[in-house]
Amino acid sequence: EKSFNDYIIAKFANSGKIVPKFARIISIALVQIFHQRGISTQSAVWSAVEYTKQKYGKQSASFVNAMLREILRSKINEIESQAPENVRLRLPEMIYQRWKNNLDSKRLKI
């Protein structure tokens, strides 16, 4: 899921780049939102924002909140369908390229 989260975060970052510590916080929240059971979307966002506020201040927390809210308002399925193949397959780029170079398309089942 890391490649997918990284892709989504980069897609929504205005400059295409984001401070790594905030990318990690957002990525953890996305994992909680999309893959963990028993935690509501609002709780995951609240936890990420509160952690950021305590650790880095209100301005940073506002950024994390805005990014998460924008991602959640988006149509993730459409974004995923336009993502590079390794992201859709949830594979790191390096592994995807190695498999693609070493296996024929029938064995790789792309």
Q: What is the overall number of helices?
A: 8
Distance between the termini: 18 Å
Shape: elongated
Alpha-carbon Rg, integer: 16 Å
The proportion of strand residues reads under 5%
Q: Which segments are poorly predicted (pLDDT under 50) over 5 or more consecutive residues?
A: none
| Overall pLDDT metric | 86
Helix fraction, binned, reads over 70%
Spell out the helices and strands N to C.
HHHHHHHH
Structural class: mainly alpha
DSSP, total strands: 0
The biggest beta sheet is recorded as: none
Question: What would you note in describing this structure?
Answer:
The protein is mainly α. The chain has eight helices and no strands. It has helices spanning 2-12, 20-35, 41-56, 58-73, 76-81, 85-88, 93-102, 105-108. Helix 1 (2-12) crosses helix 2 (20-35), helix 2 (20-35) crosses helix 4 (58-73) and helix 3 runs antiparallel to helix 4 (58-73). The protein is elongated and about 50 Å long.
Write the SSE topology:
Elements: H1 2-12, H2 20-35, H3 41-56, H4 58-73, H5 76-81, H6 85-88, H7 93-102, H8 105-108
Helix pairs in contact: 1-2, 2-3, 2-4, 3-4
Which labels suit this protein?
110 residues; mainly alpha
